Amino acid sequence: MGESTPPLPPPPPLGRPGRIVAALGIVALSGVVLVGVTLLASATATRDPASASAATTPSASAVVADRLGSPPPRASASTDPEPLHRVGERVAIVGLAAHTVLRVEDWGDPSASGRRGLAVRVRVEALKNDTTFDFQNYQIFDGAGGVFSAQTPGKQPALAYGSLRRADEAVGWVTFQVPPEGPYVLSIRTPLGYNGLEETIRVALDPIEPASPDPTPGPTITPRPRSTAPTTLANYGYPTTIDSTFYSGYGATLPGSSVSEVHGEWVEPKARCSGSTERDAGFWVGIEDPTGNFLQQLGTLAHCNGGSAPTYHAWYEMFPLRTVPIKMAIHPGDRMRATVSVTGSAWRLAITNATTGASFAVTKQRSAEAAIALWIAEAPSTSTTDVGQHVLPLADYGTVTFSHCTAVVDGTSRTLTDRSWAHFRFDMATASGVVKAVTSVTSAGGTSFRSTWRHS
Question: Backbone phi, then psi, for 22, in 5-degree steps?
């Protein structure tokens, strides 16, 4: 995922609206908006002597940095305030990675939104194997204390997420929309990988250069890959991250091939209910056709009716048909196992509560392509039209961990992030950019990931 990576076109439309537990007045799924940004991750920052040429005179960014404060309080390996680094300075996270902000420049047309587009070119160097990077660890602080997350689509080539082997590096752009006037400070959160500890690198974004030639000078809509997408394209021509107002999780596909089975497991999280508003969160696996017209899925739902105790339900759906409730007791802490499979036109949907031993399976007839495997935590919707426009508040489910995420494609079993097919991560946020749920990178050999609630 270096600088030569071409702009990635979007995948087929995913997540057309369907229903979840009609008796509760809830529905699931809607369309998605593509992303394309970057990020880095990795631990105690030290200034590289090789970057001593950085200016020592305090800039406006340095003066205001003290007023900006740090990101929301988190456990830290150090009680010392983070130093303010500069563009061009290599910042080493001892034993993990080194980060360098190479350039900051204007991007896009500010007249369209009233905001200023900033593109930040960064380099991540791995100092150990399996060094991960992820665009969600980048934020910009302005002089008024505002906090701004990376946005997509952005300047290309953009980093998304992934891992590097020792001595490898990735270079790309992270793009933001910020107020017209600075100064600006870039914050890079760096998980240390133990006890929830992390460090923060802060970089003064000064100077800001004029925009350079860009293969994508502003947000554009690009055609989806053909069914015979050439395998020489990174990730088969699909983006690696997709912004959604209702999806957190992963999807995967192999152009021109069929998914005959998808399997996933999760521990039902405990919902936290408060206030007077209904909130919901669904957890499921499914298989979708390449047009988004048909989606076969099943899973569980956590439902909050105001501040009352949450209720939990199992369900299946053959979208565009309505959701069908499953008579199965679900409790927080129950381990759920779900599988959707297809043979010819026979679709089998099966779910087991491994904690109680209860199980359910049904076979339905439908002629539909099986193109996309999905593992999803979702904010349901109240409408099967106007995709993504009627999303319900997301119930606070804490963190749900999906495990044993596998699929069978053309008769071959694959993990979620198997390199022999395209996979993409869904990041859930409101249309205005408020993060609703954070999707982690995968673990356990590409078969597991976490989705963590952040905002309703």
Answer: -60, -30
